[in-house]
Design brief:
This protein has 542 residues and is of the alpha+beta class. The protein folds into three domains: 240 residues, GROEL, domain 1; 108 residues, TCP-1-like chaperonin intermediate domain (GROEL, domain 2, 2-Layer Sandwich); 127 residues, GroEL. It contains 16 helices and 23 strands. Strands 11, 12, 13, 14, 15, 16 and 17 form a seven-stranded mixed sheet that branches. Strand 20 and strand 21 form a beta hairpin.
Length: 542
């Protein structure tokens, strides 16, 4: 278009613009590429990925969200799928691969409908209806679980771990995970269960078998006492937490001290010593025999503490100080002069232990252990990292199962039941939305399909057998990838929290709808600043 044949430039020169179906297909294929990249890691027969970052650090994992976070994703639509995985991870802690594969499949089905000239708005309306119905079905097929069902909670933890590297030791780790979550669980004002997973601390140490990992009802702090003359073990510990330095304060203002004779010098040195002694005496007077200090401890103060038989650690992390406060009942003191008996915390035992050449302080037997520590072992650092990631997923699912009190069966059984009921529902809706609801139902079947593919089975046969079983009313029929048969998942104890399915379907639908509604991509030309990655312009959060 032109005025006097001069083109009107609305957008900055070099801006790239995709419109209409081009934009939609580009976005969909980018998002599907992301879904395909994690697809082979789903289920107990899934494979791991090795990711190497720009610094050359290696991560080996099959945790969907870790894979996507480590990949340097540039395409704006693909970034939306990474967000789906991150949301799933934040809300539930597991099921990240499932949610991304589902979003990818919803988009794949939409491509066929757009090709057949079904308007994207109709597709998104149908997807929304299907999502609401799927949530109803999930609720209908869910079962109750309570904090007292230790066996069920262990099965939930085991199901989460079976697809991970620690699957071989799942029974051993399930005990640790359930025990840990039950220790930190609390009730809120309304009497509902709630757990803050920050109260589970992990300490990773390589160089031992995974099954040498251990749970400590208390805390492990990566610090040793500041002086070798201090006791290595304090029973019946009275703990004081100090966020101040046991050092002589320097003046804030420029100050000069003039000394004219040797007597004044020794008096000056003596006074510094007396100040440090008074600080230590103040701690001693409170009855404390263990001190955790967030700041420094002067050499002379260390000597005084050692003489009094007080166990002292310095430069303890703030997060550890807060955990110590929660577990032992100690309050954190900001002023040494104001330390008193009321600030003390209590534990049965504080002792120094050596783990793989590193000295650490163990605090056990706290009066109200609302924090636990897990020492994670693995043959190499990479193994220990993956064990930790798997444990985080496991205790997240145990936590949400206790909070929601509901579980569903795995092995693709719930996805197949949702698909079957959505097809019946589609017929009752009518109109063009019906096509989208049927497409949504087919997309749900990607879960059993992928499980079958990863186990080297024929997905078509598996899906036919699964449909047949669900038609006969076997709502818990799913795929056992080890036998290659369709079996009852409830009797095999393949169970997972209701929230995994709820969140995965919700966020996959939201992402698919958002990507489908885009018909115009305007990418500004990157400024001549040095580019990260391969130079694809970032779209920001528009």
């Amino acid at each position: 278009m032109g005025m006097g044949n001069a083109p009107i430039l609305i957008l900055r020169e070099g801006t790239k613009r995709d419109k209409g179906k081009d934009a939609q297909f580009n976005n969909i294929s980018a998002a599907r590429a992301i879904a395909d990249s994690v697809r082979s890691s789903l289920g107990p027969r899934g494979m791991d990925k090795m990711l190497v970052d720009t610094m050359g650090d290696v991560v080996i994992t099959n945790d969907g969200v870790t894979i996507l976070k480590e990949m340097d994703v540039q395409h704006p639509a693909a970034k939306m799928l990474v967000e789906v995985a991150k949301t799933q991870d934040a809300e539930v802690g597991d099921g990240t691969t499932t949610s991304v594969i589902l979003a990818g499949e919803l988009l794949k089905k939409a491509t066929d409908m757009i090709d057949a000239n079904v308007h994207p708005t109709l597709i998104t309306a149908g997807y929304r209806l299907a999502n609401d119905k799927a949530q109803e079905v999930l609720k209908a097929v869910s079962k109750k679980v309570s904090i007292d069902d230790a066996n069920l909670l262990k099965q939930i933890a085991e199901t989460s771990m079976i697809s991970k590297q620690i699957g071989g030791s799942k029974a051993f780790f399930a005990d640790i995970v359930v025990d840990a979550v039950k220790t930190i669980i609390d009730k809120d004002a309304k009497g509902n269960y709630t757990a803050d997973l920050k109260n589970i601390q992990t300490v990773k140490k390589s160089g031992a078998n995974m099954e040498e990992s251990q749970l400590i009802k208390g805390l492990v702090i990566d610090k040793e006492p500041v002086s070798s003359a201090m006791p290595k073990k304090v029973e019946n510990a009275k703990i004081i937490l100090v966020d101040a330095a046991f050092e002589v304060k320097k003046t804030e203002i420029e100050a000069k001290i003039q000394i004219t004779d040797p007597g004044q010098l020794s008096a000056f040195i003596q006074e510094e010593e007396n100040m440090l002694r008074r600080m230590v005496d103040k701690v001693k007077a409170s009855g404390a025999n263990v001190v955790f200090c967030q700041k420094g401890i002067d050499d002379l103060a260390q000597h005084f503490f050692a003489k009094e038989g007080i166990y002292a650690c310095r430069r303890v992390k703030k997060s550890d100080m807060e955990r110590l406060g929660r577990s032992t009942g100690a309050s954190i003191c900001n002023k040494i002069e104001e330390i008193g008996k009321e600030d003390l915390g209590f534990a049965d035992l504080v002792e120094l232990k050596v783990i793989q050449d590193e000295e650490m302080t163990f605090i056990t037997g706290c009066k109200d252990p609302k924090t636990v520590s897990i020492i994670v072992r693995g043959g190499t650092n990479h193994v220990a990292d993956e064990v930790e990631r798997s444990l985080v997923d496991a205790w997240s699912v145990v936590k949400v199962s206790i909070e929601d009190g509901m579980l569903v069966t795995g092995g693709g059984s719930t996805a197949m039941e949702v698909a079957m009921r959505l097809r019946d529902y589609a017929a009752s809706v009518g109109g063009r939305e019906q096509i989208a609801i049927e497409a949504f139902a087919s997309a749900m079947e990607i879960i059993p399909t992928t499980l079958a593919e990863n186990a080297g089975l024929d997905p078509i046969d598996i899906n036919i057998n699964l449909r047949k079983a669900h038609k006969e009313g076997k709502i818990h029929a799913g795929l056992n990838p080890f036998t290659g048969k369709v079996e009852d998942m409830l009797s095999l104890n393949v169970i997972e929290p209701y929230r995994i399915g709820k969140q995965a379907i919700n966020s996959a639908t939201d992402a698919a709808v958002m990507i489908l509604r885009i018909d115009d991509v305007i990418a500004s030309k990157a400024s001549p600043m040095p580019q990260m990655g391969d130079g694809m312009p970032s779209m920001g959060d528009d």
